[in-house]
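Changelog note: in this version the structure field was regenerated for every chain. One regenerated record is shown below for reference.
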Amino acid sequence: MVTHMDDLRADAITPLLRDAENEAELTTAWVRIALALALAGSLLISGRIAAVAGDLDILRQLGLAGLAVGALGTLGVASLVLVRSGRYAPWMAFAFTTGDAAIILLLVGVTLRDAHLVGNWIAAVPAIWAAPLILATGALRYRPGVQLWATGLLVIGLGLVAADFETRTFLRPADKAMLAAFGAVDLLSLPANLTRTLILALIGAVTALVMLRARRLLDRAVREAEERASLARFLPAEIAPLMVGHTLKAWRSGRRQEVTVLFVDLRDSTALAEHMDPARLSIFVSAFRRRVMQAAQAYGGIVDKFIGDGALLIFGVPEPEPNDARRAIGCAKEIVRLIARWNVKRHLHPPVRVGIGLHTGMVFCGVLGASGRLEFTVLGDVVNVAARIEQATKRFAVPLLASDTTVARAGESREWREISRESPRGRSGEIRILTPSDPVLAVQPPRPLA
């Protein structure tokens, strides 16, 4: 049963393949025209030489070949006009390749007849080498069926022409003796020609495989692009590109790893919202989120989610690194600086205040939910503790707090001081909560008056 996603994928690929086929047919049209001009030039030179020599028999023989060359040129012009006018249809590829094969076979047959050669001499006919040229340009279509059709027509057709002339035509004794003297008979024998036929068939088969491979790669590229676009609607922008194909399956199973969690929240946002109209509030919250994202990008953090006027940031995904805690602390300090600069620049009254909590430890990381609504998340005690530490910034009237675990991982113990030892609600064991020694980072702007 074809799914909705399969339908969407087909809708995305079809225009690409149609454009590729139109371009391929345009190229093939020019190849036909160029080949016709080259063959016409050869015929004109041959005719000129025959006229000077007074060989009227050769001139008559060149007439049918000239018609075939003219048909090839006409076919090229017709396909060129159809593509340029937008009237080219996919089924026409079979018709044009049939015409190409018919013209090549006609030229080969005419040459064998006029030269009084047996079928084994088919490899010596110049026109036969137009077959690989037609197959090579046909490889641009990305349609293996058309390529196999053209290959079958050429291989079977050339075999029938060779068999027909082997029974109806003969070499003059003098010519046969001359060829035997030069060893050319072996090169133009049935085994040698079967080898050439096999090579021609392999050329067609290989180019068909190339097309099939190209189509699969195109389908894969479109599928992965659609998956990324779909995942980007629900997952963090930094995570979505990592979760395509088998990688997404692994993330849906989840894994445990160490991360540093950062919670940031706007203080007194309810009071601010009461004095702002919806449009201004939207601009205000967007400006706050933009600064959080700016700090996260600067320090390699991932904004897992925005929760109203707050945000959850993660450091250590997809793979943990030794400096995750240091980068998380740097990001937290950058958020405090950006908010302070925002207050000064915009003369915000009351000033914007934030609370930030940091904690480090083992969590479950993974993608949860159904295919239509996926969510990347981290679960565990570390997340809860980080949230409690962020809430503690209200009690201690400071913008930034971190657990001793995070500070120790960052190697910044000397730059922080202990502000409390407590057991977060629902958790056994004490947590040492630290605040930066830098007074600029340890003092909140004044609370707005009630």
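Spot check on this record: Confidence is low (pLDDT under 50) at residues 1-5, 180-184. Residues 4-230 form one domain.
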